[in-house]
Amino acid sequence: MLLLAPMEGLLDHTLRDILTRVGGVDRCVSEFIRVSGTLLPDRAFLRVVPELRHGGRTRAGVPVRAQLLGSDPNCLAENAAKLAALGPHGIDLNFGCPAKIVNRHGGGAALLDDPELIANIVSAVRRAVPRTMPVSAKMRLGNLSGSRAVECAQAIAGAGADEIVVHARTKADGYRPPAYWERVADVRASVQIPVAANGEIWTVADAFRCRELSGCDTLMLGRGMVADPGLALAIVAATRSAAVVPLCAEAAHGMAWTALLPLVAEFWTLVLARRDIADRHRAGRLKQWLNHLRRHHRHADAIYSVIRTINDPGQIGVHLTESLRLAA
């Protein structure tokens, strides 16, 4: 099984929509919904997970699990109950966010120093939502060290969670390679619920190596999928054939640029239609994705170089239209 990761400020519902159209993804997790002392209105959940208006699935039909972030068990439980009534395909709890502002308020990866509080949060949320509603958690190996990874995972599992995703780095490691996939195997061996591995999966070869070292059949893809939208499909194909094709050329990735470019243009159309993005920030969203795509696609680099200093939507549209014409 392949999961699409939550990535605050990058992999939101618009990019989820586009990436799940490509195929290969079995389930998504939304970016976090912050819970801090109040019962949120429905619009707060719908803003982050608009898929709730459509059966909790992306336009391609991929189910979305909604993620909550906070540190107060009772408040999280109340909000989880309200969220569950909107019909997500499960509720995920964030024990991994490394952002300083989140950690200063005792949320995200900071909770990994307090397994007892983690257990209280999971237990409260599990009791607050219907038994048929899956409750999962995403954690890192630890906060400043990974010495309590197994203890935290056991706290999550013992409190009634149905699944754990482990980002194979500590908060102190940030996003620097490597990811310690072999440490995920220790977590997996310590609990009786499914465990998925996450972190530094950029290629099919990485996916196979991660599965080997972690022992996890389920993987969560983040930046690797943003940079190569065809990655999930390529992993699925390689898994079926039990052969890893070297990823040394653009054609070896899951999508050719001629197939990807129309999706980039559609992404831009969807960004322009969003009312919650200020005009001055719209161009930044497109540039942000193109910057990731440059890792594998020289054509993305060419478009990025042209529009890097342009913010006018009309001019950007002209460049995208011309790129589509040339690629046809």
Q: What is the fold's blueprint, element by element?
A:
Blueprint: E1 2-4, H1 13-22, E2 27-29, E3 33-34, H2 42-48, E4 64-69, H3 73-84, E5 91-95, H4 100-104, H5 115-128, E6 135-142, H6 149-158, E7 163-170, H7 181-190, E8 195-198, H8 204-214, E9 219-221, H9 223-227, H10 231-241, H11 257-273, H12 279-293, H13 298-307, H14 313-327
Parallel strand pairs: 1-2, 1-9, 2-4, 3-4, 4-5, 5-6, 6-7, 7-8, 8-9
Helix pairs in contact: 3-5, 5-6, 7-8, 11-12, 11-14, 12-13
What tags apply to this protein structure?
single chain, 328 residues, alpha/beta, TIM Barrel, Bacteriocin As-48, Chain A, eight-stranded parallel beta barrel
Q: CATH superfamily of the largest domain, called what?
A: Aldolase class I
Tell me the overall shape.
Answer: globular
Instruction: Tell me which CATH architecture of the largest domain applies here.
Output: Alpha-Beta Barrel
**What fraction strand?**
5-15%
Query: Which strand order spans the largest sheet, edge to edge or round the barrel?
Result: 1-2-4-5-6-7-8-9
Identify the quaternary structure here: single chain
Distance from N terminus to C terminus (CA atoms, Å) equals: 34 Å
Average residue-wise pLDDT = 93
The CATH class of the largest domain is: Alpha Beta
Number of alpha- plus pi-helical segments: 14
What structural class do helix, strand and pairing data support? alpha/beta
Q: What portion of residues is helical?
A: 40-55%
Please tell me about this protein's structure:
It is a single chain. The chain has 2 domains: 2-249, TIM Barrel, CATH 3.20.20; 257-327, Bacteriocin As-48, Chain A (Up-down Bundle), CATH 1.20.225. Helix content is 46%, strand content 13%. It contains 14 helices and 9 strands. An 8-stranded parallel beta barrel has the order 1-2-4-5-6-7-8-9, surrounded by 5 helices. Helix 11 (257-273) runs antiparallel to helix 14 and helix 12 (279-293) packs antiparallel against helix 13 (298-307). The two termini are 34 Å apart. Mean pLDDT is 93; it is low at 244-252.
